[in-house]
Amino acid sequence: MIVFFTHTATHAQIAEMQLHLKQLGFDSQLVPGQNICLVHKLKDEQLLANFPFVSHTQIISSSYQLASNAYKTETNFQVNGIQIGTHFANIIAGPCSVENEKQIFETAAFLAKNNIKFIRGGAYKPRTSPYSFRGLGKDGLKLLHEAAKTYQLNVVTELMDLSLLDEVAQYTDIIQIGSRNMANFYLLGELGKINLPILLKRGMQANVNEFLLAADYILSGGNEKVILCERGIRSFDPMSRNVMDVGVIPLIQSLSHLPIMADPSHGTGDAKFVNALAKASLVAGANGLMVEIHPNPKLALSDANQALTFEAFEQLLSDIELLKPTIQKPIDATYSILV
Ligand code: PEP
Ligand code: MN
Q1: 133 and 201 together in one domain
Q2: 19 and 101 inside one domain
């Protein structure tokens, strides 16, 4: 049950209610900054009748609560004046890994020339083999941040471990949580306490319920700026790196108010198929794309096979131009256009 408080409810009153519920066997959790409390397992609102500062209650039947569209119908917010959310689409592009100054500055210049607002790049990379390139670490974050600043782009980069939160947060505008960390529940809980948007990628084996529950870990900490990202799931078929689950986009939109972006690069693992799946995802309703590009994909130190050349990315952008009437969402809309 979600319990909503009146604006005059005091901390002491709420604490008293929580203690009362605890004595009845119900654990509860305040959501910081939102004047609500999640009471686990409670179904009978009569038990709250003696607390006049409770304005109303809501029972949400799914296991995920705050990610549900029964709780809220849309999520929209700004990142440095750029609109992100249920009503928008954004394009995030850049290399899998930040490799060197030339690579990241060339990429940033190219993106700015094409009016893209978000650059991605991993500085701390989750690699299957410890002997693969694992990123430049803090030097990579600094390069990415510098390149983004020079070309007025916003940064998206992955946070692998809580110990790196302060460092990563200093250099990024959106924190990416990778597929491998979608089920790192303690990390997710801590991200609920910060104010930066979180791009939460679907675990490669995660079902929709698990994905939305992962979002609830962040939301229930008080951070409402969550963006989901479908990045392909593992299948029995070794012919493709992952199976891009385009169907999950409208499915999640029927269940949740959270924006959902699509990453057709990891979703297919092959540059040849990125264009098709990127378009399919946008037409299916995705709230944006995350695409890996590289000035010279053959030389990429990670995910070389799936990186688009600049030419292929420009082709994708012009294909998207033609699809705009079907997409029916402003892409990388600036706040000033909308007010
Ligand atoms: C990435 O975006 O480079 C990445 C590692 O993605 P994922 O977590 O989806 O594998
Ligand atoms: Mn990658």
Answers
A1: yes
A2: no
